[in-house]
Protein: NADPH-dependent F420 reductase
Organism: Candidatus Marsarchaeota G2 archaeon OSP_D
Amino acid sequence: MVLWVSSVPCMVHHYQQGSHFQLCCLGLSTSLFVLFSCVYKMKIAVVGGTGDLGEGLIKRLCLNHQVVVGSRIKEKAQNIASELSAKVREETGIEPNVSGEANPEAVKGSDVAVLAVPSEYALQTVISLSSEFPAGCVLVSPVVPMVKTEDGFLYSPPDGHHSMAEAIAEQVNVPVVAAFHTLPAKKLADLKLQPEFDVPLVGDSEEAVRRVSNLIESIPRLRPLYVGSLRTAQLVESLTPLILNVSAKNKLRNLSLKFV
């Protein structure tokens, strides 16, 4: 395919590493070489998009992607989609691409499905949708199994498993990537802020990890950092109770991570 940018002939080549395209522009001088990426707009289903983390992810991701809010009740999902669309328009002046559906319909045709539900409902939600995830979809789990005790928050994975992500992966036939555990929901939902955070992620599929990394990078100032296979998911999931305890014990609010 040939395009013209500022009267310069350009060749568009598919970039094999993820859902990106590279646009190579060569002018009259061989010294002129412009290279930039354009992010492919993915269809993102946010299952349980009516919660705090879901709101922030929807508001950020809808600026670059098609987002479908998922809920057990279609009307609730549609109301949330309408409400968040209005907020995004008001805060950015951009017309977002957000709709609402019942969970099974929300995940159909999705490139990425984000499981933004409380940990106590995560497995039953995944089991109920296990036959609905389309081939080629990547399931993202930001779910953190933990309990609150008199000593603070403690990591508490499902019985018989080292992590929630591994337990989820046993229930589905699509690749699972664990990510987004450490993002503070309030800062994520406030589009006036541009938080500069790192996002650790784990997964067994190289292509799935690459796709989720591209998704993370589509949110300005977020940096994906690969940790390892799903066997290392417990390391990433357990960061959340650590952050919450640091926050509570030291009176610090909306903490996250930045590796320096």
User: Anything to note?
Assistant: The chain has two domains: 2-39, 43-250.
